[in-house]
Specification:
With about 200 residues, the protein is an alpha/beta fold. The chain is about 20% helix and about 35% strand. The chain has a 9-stranded mixed β-sheet with strand order 2-1-3-4-9-8-7-5-6. The longest helix is centred in the middle third of the chain and has 12 residues. It starts with a strand and ends in a 9-residue tail after the last strand.
Length: about 200
């Protein structure tokens, strides 16, 4: 059984109404509904509004894979939690950062760079599967398209990925390393760019 914790900066109560129009249960709820259907996963959610930001030691230490989504409240995540997440990855936890979590403090800590990028509002994106034999890409076609997604473009200030799985191309001509894996200690980090909170992705 894989213990999965989905972390989001917002509870449903604190989620902006524009997000709730797309994700009535919030982003945590949408991810939970999908992942909890997998019989091999024990899935739970956590958010910034909970005591210890929803990640007390007993939860963090029993998490095999942590999904992290954040947008505008990165600065509210305590430094001691950032260090605990970083250390837990080094001890073997997998962590998946989604979309705007590229500016989260745990991601920046694990990357050791600014993690800045170019961006603008909506555009059509084509994601190319450039490492089709990777388990993350299992069953995916050569490419797939998102009709409306926030544009993230290079230069993305990250270390060279150990594995590049997806490469994004936008109709404005920009490209982006949209799915990257890094090994950190005994753990793995995966960053996946799609997932704008106001689009049904």
């Amino acid at each position: 059984m894989i213990n999965v914790t989905i972390w989001n900066e917002d509870s449903v109560a604190s989620t902006h109404e524009d997000v709730l129009k797309v994700y009535p249960q919030g982003l945590n709820g949408a991810l939970y509904d999908f992942l909890s259907k997998n019989e091999n996963m024990n899935v739970r959610t956590a958010n910034l509004d909970e005591p210890e930001c929803g990640l007390p030691d007993e939860i963090l230490n029993s998490t095999d894979v942590l999904l992290w989504w954040g947008h505008g409240k990165h600065h509210l995540v305590p430094d001691d939690l950032v260090k605990k997440v970083h250390d837990r990855v080094l001890r073997g936890m997998g962590i998946i950062f989604l979309h705007s979590a590229h500016f989260s403090h745990p991601f920046i800590s694990l990357m050791g760079t600014t993690c800045s990028l170019k961006w603008r509002d909506g555009d059509r994106e084509r994601l190319w599967t450039v490492l089709p034999n990777h388990p993350i890409a299992k069953g995916l076609p050569e490419f797939f398209e998102l009709e409306e997604e926030e544009m993230y473009g290079e230069r993305f200030d990250i270390p060279q990925p150990d594995e590049l799985i997806f490469l994004g191309w936008f109709s404005g001509g920009e490209v982006f390393r949209s799915g990257c894996v890094w090994y950190r200690g005994l753990g793995k980090v995966f960053y996946f760019q799609p997932g704008h909170e106001e689009e049904p992705i």
